[in-house]
Amino acid sequence: MDLNALASRVIDGGTITTDEALAVLRLPDELTYELVAAAGRVRRHFHGATMKVNYLVNLKSGKCPEDCFYCSQRLGSDAEILRYTWLTHEDALEAAKAGIRAGAGRVCLVASGRGPSNRDVDRVGRIIEDLKEDNPGVEVCACLGILKDGQAERLASAGADAYNHNLNTAESHYDNICTTHDYDDRKDTVQHAREHGLSACSGLIAGMGESDEQLVEVAFQLKEIGADSVPVNFLMPFDGTPLEGHSELTPQKCLRILAMIRLVHGSADVRVSAGREQHLRSLQPLSLEICNSLFLGDYLTSQGQAGEEDLEMLADGGYTVWGADGQRSPGAPPRPEIRRRGAGTRVAANA
């Protein structure tokens, strides 16, 4: 396989086939670095050396009625995570602003659950409006679950730029990871958000027992629904979930998955996401040559690499952080401080 020819085809506006994508996943380890270089040509053609830094704000954690097998917030989960109802408006804004001060150009507002009520959407809409008033150049992505009629329009009118709802895995594998909703529920939400002016952010979780063919399947299904931001997560097998202890990924396999996604999606934002620290390990910096986006610091219910280390990794690699005011150099971020109020738990960011 001529990897440079594949990269040139994508750069010229062409596409790779499903057979070629499968062959990329099945390359031997000794060709993985050559693959990274080819995928890096595509990344640099469309995105240069810039890196979009995203910051997660967990508005509501745990207590989800869905049974997604990989999720620490699922129905019946015994995972040791923080569980709390909605943050106050002030705490949500301060957490988001902490991420922006750290260098994030995109804030992701996330709440657990099957989907939001209209009251929930109004609550998030007010957060977006106030955040945008003080930070007009910041991108805001909402991730609230399955949307109902009228809710995407409300988020868009409040100033949301994107809506995240991951397909997570191939349609042919979906029944093996969730029983309380189906694949069409997810696909329909992404398409509904796109139809009402929101950028489609949708990705996958690798390492949940899917085959190489199913990784290719979900990659092309994400392309079919028009995802222009593709987060690639690697399974974090939380204790207390059905996938506890599950492990099938190697650092080089993770790089091949990322490269396959880059070649399939070309100019899209490809985000190296949860699990990168655990599965890529010392090869993390190589993922930045493929991906032009990452999450800064911690994830929803698990601790990531410290934000300072993320920014040092970007600076050491010669990448420039894309931000609300254009491109800017990395700075040291504060880390969110967890504090408890009575029986509930809230998140407040350090000043």
TrEMBL record:
MF-aspect GO terms: 2 iron, 2 sulfur cluster binding; 4 iron, 4 sulfur cluster binding; biotin synthase activity; iron ion binding
Protein EC: 2.8.1.6
Gene3D superfamilies documented for this protein: Aldolase class I
UniProt pathway: Cofactor biosynthesis; biotin biosynthesis; biotin from 7,8-diaminononanoate: step 2/2
Binding site for [2Fe-2S] cluster: C108, C141, C201, R271
Superkingdom: Bacteria
Keyword flag S-adenosyl-L-methionine: yes
Catalytic activity reported: (4R,5S)-dethiobiotin + (sulfur carrier)-SH + 2 reduced [2Fe-2S]-[ferredoxin] + 2 S-adenosyl-L-methionine = (sulfur carrier)-H + biotin + 2 5'-deoxyadenosine + 2 L-methionine + 2 oxidized [2Fe-2S]-[ferredoxin]
Cofactor(s) for this UniProt protein: [4Fe-4S] cluster; [2Fe-2S] cluster
Keywords: 2Fe-2S, 4Fe-4S, Biotin biosynthesis, Iron, Iron-sulfur, Metal-binding, S-adenosyl-L-methionine, Transferase
Signal sequence extent: none
InterPro entries in alphabetical order: Aldolase_TIM, BATS_dom, Biotin_synth/BioAB, Biotin_synthase, Elp3/MiaA/NifB-like_rSAM, rSAM, rSAM_sf
Keyword set includes Kinase: no
SUPFAM superfamilies reported in the protein's UniProt record: Radical SAM enzymes (SSF102114)
Cofactor annotation comment: Binds 1 [4Fe-4S] cluster. The cluster is coordinated with 3 cysteines and an exchangeable S-adenosyl-L-methionine. Binds 1 [2Fe-2S] cluster. The cluster is coordinated with 3 cysteines and 1 arginine.
Binding-site residues for [4Fe-4S] cluster, renumbered to this chain: C64, C68, C71
UniProt-listed GO biological process terms: biotin biosynthetic process
Assembly notes: Homodimer.
NCBIfam families: bioB (TIGR00433)
Family to which this protein belongs: Belongs to the radical SAM superfamily. Biotin synthase family.
Chain's role: Catalyzes the conversion of dethiobiotin (DTB) to biotin by the insertion of a sulfur atom into dethiobiotin via a radical-based mechanism.
Name of protein: Biotin synthase
Lineage: Bacteria, Bacillati, Actinomycetota, Actinomycetes, Propionibacteriales
